[in-house]
C-alpha cells in the first residue's frame, strides 16, 4: 500500500470511528439499545484499527504520523478507556452509557479536526485546544442528559477547559519565526550592460481570442494566447520590454526555469514592483542555457496565467535543424490549447517536440507511431536517453519534456490526455493503457557532483486553518504555516543545499524553486538511478518524499512554491534568501 493510500485509509477509518462513537452515544441517549451497541462495535473496531494505519504511516516517516501519535493516540486511548469498561458492565438502562460514548466521540472527533485543520507539525497548542474542546463538549452533553456531575467535577472540568483553551490559542496563534518577506526591494540593478542582440516587446492586455473555434475573453501578450514565441541562440543577450495596457491586477514576466539574475526574475513584491496599466519594465539577460522554457506573468499568477499571460522561450545551440515544434499545452476557458495541427514530414527528418505544461495540473503525453527518446527535461539534456516505444510521460505543471525521433515513413502523433495535438497523418492509436515513464530510472547514471551538504531544509506540504489574517482561510501550508508566515530559507553563496519535500496532503503539489535547477537525489528513499535529473518543476504526489539538492550559486531572494498556482496563492509560497 502506498503512503498516499494509507493517508486516505487512515482518514476514512478515523471518520468511521468518530461517527460510530457519536452515533452510539446519540442512540443510547434515545434508548435504542441494539443500534447503540452496533454503532459502538463499529467505533471500537475502527479505533483499534487506527493503531495499524498510524503505525504504518509512522514507518513511512514521522511527518505523516506526528499528530496522530501525539494527539489522536492519547485521545483514542481515553475514548476506549472510558467507554469500553462501561459497556462491558452492560447496564440495564443503555442511557447510562450515553455520556461515556459521547465523550469518546468528542475525543476522536477533536483528534480528527487536529489532522484536518492543523496537520504538521503537531503542537502543544493544538493538543490543548483539542482537550479543551472535548471537556467543553462533554460538560454540555452532561447537562443536556441531566447527568448532574458533582460541583467539584464540573469546576475542575471548567478550569481544565479554559486553561487548555487559553494556552492552546496562545500557542497556536502566537507568531513563530519572523516572516519578514521584503516588499519592493532588490539588490542594485545587476542587469547586464551588454548590447542586446534580440529585442522583443510584450504588451499585456485584455483580448478576445479564438480557443478551439470559440471566442473567449482572455488576457494576452500582443493580443495572442499563447504570447509570441521568444527564440534565441545561446549567447544572445535578450531584451524584453513589457508593457501593460489594461491589466488591472498588474503584470510581470517570470522566466520559468531560466536561471536569470535575481532582479530579472519577475516576481512582484520580491524582485520588482508589478507593472501597472500604462507602465513598462525592461528585462535584459544573457541566454546562456540551451533548452525549452516558458514565461508567464507572476502578478496574481493564478488568474493571470490561467487567463492567458504566458508564452514559450526556446534557446537553441545554433540554427534549428530538422523539424522543431513547440507544444505549449494550456486550458483556456475550458478549451484545450493548442489546436490540433497536422503536417506532412519527409521520412528521415529529425523531429524535436518540445512539450510544455502551462496548466496547474499534470498532463499525460504520448508519442505514437515511432520509437522516441526523451532528450531533455526542464531544459536540461539527459545523459544516455534510450529509445522508448508505446510509453507515456506525465509532465507536471510548469514542466517541459523534449521528445526526439527521426520521422518514419508512417504517420506519427502526439496525444495529450488522449487528444491528438500534433500529427503527421492519421494514427488510430489508443494510448490510454500505455505504461508511464519514470524519469528517475531513465538514462545513464552519474555520480552526484558534491560530497557534502551545507544546509538542509524540510518542507512538509499539507492543508491547515490559517488564522493569522483578517479572514480565516483553509490554506495550503508548508510546515504548518502559510505565506507570508513561512520562515525564509537562508543560505550562503556556495552552499550545497538539500530539500526534503514531504506531501502529507491528499493532492499533488508540483514544486518549483526559482533561480536554480535542483538535482533529484531520492524519491521515497529510493535513489534516483537514471540520468542526473536537474528539474525546476516536479510533482510531489500524496504520500511522497523527495530529496533534492542544488548549489546556491545565484544570489538574491527567490520564490519557492507550489506551481499549482491556486495553491501558491492559497499560502504555499516561501522564499529562499542568500545571507
Ligand atoms: Cu512558473 Cu513562480 O513560477
Ligand atoms: Cu500545490
From TrEMBL:
The keyword Transmembrane helix applies. It comes from the Bacteria. Residues 212-317, 482-576 form the Plastocyanin-like domain. The chain crosses the membrane at residues 6-23, 35-56, 62-84, 96-120, 126-145, 157-178. Keywords: Copper, Membrane, Metal-binding, Oxidoreductase, Transmembrane, Transmembrane helix. PANTHER family: FI03373P-RELATED, MULTI-COPPER OXIDASE. This is Multicopper oxidase family protein. It comes from Micromonospora trifolii.
